[in-house]
Amino acid sequence: MSAHQTALGGLNREVGLGVFDTTNLSDTHLVGFVPTSASATTLAMRSGYAYIGEQETGLHVIDATDPANPRWVRTLDQASRVTKIRLDGDYAYLALE
User: Among 4, 52, 68, 95, which residue is least crowded by beta carbons within 10 Å?
Assistant: First the structure.
């Protein structure tokens, strides 16, 4: 399954990151899932990694290079709600509320 055939970033606002296979649009289905700790507010993807901003805990980094087995890498705690993520080079810029 190639990267363009897999929708990395099927985000469920309440429970975590779902990865959906969209190869056949009449048979789209969940292939991988990793839970997060709070309601997600934003998502950015780069090189198979998902960066999830949350209301309460900050920024989660998820390794989704294996779509069937995404795994949590780390959480960067923020006191504020993350409303937007911009990835540029080696940096992640967070809009905090």
Answer: 4
From the first residue on, what is the mean pLDDT of each consecutive set of 10 residues in the chain (97 residues)? Answer: 44 69 91 83 93 88 94 88 93 92
72 HSE (CA, 13 A, CB side) = 10
Please, what's the b/e burial string for 13-44 (b: 16 or more CB within 10 A of its CB; e: otherwise)? eeebbbbbbeeeeeeeeebbbbebebebbbbb
DSSP code for 66? S
The whole-model pTM stands at 0.80
The DSSP output letter for 67 is T
